[in-house]
Amino acid sequence: MRATQIFSRGLLFAAAVALSACSTSRTDLVNTVSMDEYDGESVVVMARSYHTGNATEKDFTDCVASQLRSGRNAINIMPKAQFVDAMYPWFEPRTVPNDISALPKLLNNPMIADRMRETGVRYVVWLDGNTDTPNGGGSVSCAAGPGGAGCFGFAWWESDSDYDAVVWDLEGTREAGNVETRVNGTSYLPAIIVPIPLIARTQSTACKDLSQQLQTFIASGA
Amino acid sequence: MAGLLRLSRLRAVLATASVGLLAGCGTTVKLDNMQLPEALVEPYPLTAAVRFGKDVESFVYEETLPTGGTYTIDLGRASALMFTETLDDMFAQVVPVTPDTLVPEGIDLLIEPSLVALEFAIPAQTVTKDYAVWIRYQIRVYDSEGTLQAEYPLSAYGKAARESLMGGTESALRSAASLAIRDAAVLMLLDFEREAALAKNQLAGLAVAQQPPAPAGAETPPKPATTPEQAPAPTDNAEKFL
After folding, report:
1. 3-state DSSP call for residue A155?
2. How does pLDDT run across B160-182, given as a tens digit for each residue?
3. Residue of A nearest to B188 (CA)
4. What distance in Å separates residue B240's CA from the closest CA in chain A?
5. What is the spatial distance between Cα B112 and Cα B53, in angstroms, rounded to a whole number?
6. How far, in Å, CA of A113 to CA of A86, rounded?
7. What is the pTM of this model?
8. Do the Cβ atoms of A79 and A91 come closer than 8 Å?
């Protein structure tokens, strides 16, 4: 009896491992210049404008900001809305500089440059990219009746989280570095009476990997 | 007999519930408030009157989509508040006037915005998670004599994603509409000179007229004349505004 129990539990565990959502990730730091020592200056995390076709999710931007302000290398993050309001109307979706080359001209306006100094923001992290589900298949059907309810079937889908973060140094009006991360994963939803979601959290992994690299880069200049 | 009565009551309850569910398919968003930050722009040293044209002070848009669902976007006074705050940032003094008022005494310009059209798109149409709102205004600029000096369209756009799979429709549509109105404010602030090219000459003339006379011998080079046809086409970044 005991051996049967151990066997069935082992079988269940093996099935869970075999079916568990898997993902692969790759994060690269490229195109860096030597950074000044981080001295508690403020950093603002922003998504590239939707006027340029970018579709970075708000929850991803929030996640990166939240990760950057926590942990051993915590960075002083200024909320995006606060920065955008302070710089109004120069960091709106329509007016935000798309390229570092536009920054000197913007900061040439004394009114804008003074306000920028007042905010205490030294670095702007621009996020680009999004999470897609390029492939998927299968189906799960659920039904309910007087005797009970249940689901049956199997569904799966792939997720690609592809993000790019560019760090602008406002003091040097230069692009300081660029971090890219790509996480792929496949999620499964087997259902035998009860659906068991095995979700590949690619966006969450991308957020953690990207933030960790950015934090190291800004806080320690490496 | 009692069984039949119970059955008919059950049917009545089910019918009421169905009507309730169907009624719940409508989405209504209302913008009660519109607050904008103070703009980092140098105001023109002019007194402008503002007279709200069609639909600026109260606007409700309703559309039933072919795919189902009725959407109502009530902008209320959001456009009027946006123009009031924006013109306050743009001009040294702003005088609001009622729709039936002609050009009042002592003003340099009269600006009359009207709301011409609103359109929106839902995720099923954009094939993304996004709701999008477009608002088109028409801006008329009159001089102190009441002569129409310039007229141009102002097309604003806002986009916001639904935050959860099962809900957040109203919140996303409201955000998209708010962003569109804020975008209109940005265009008003930064495109006014170029779009109202005829008014630019007048603005320059009026500004010069209000400045103290230049000392003898100092000459100001003449500004090149700009016509609406010569005005550069808008692009989507800050450079064009600087």
Report:
1. strand
2. 988 765 568 899 999 999 999 99
3. A89
4. 9
5. 6
6. 12
7. 0.79
8. no
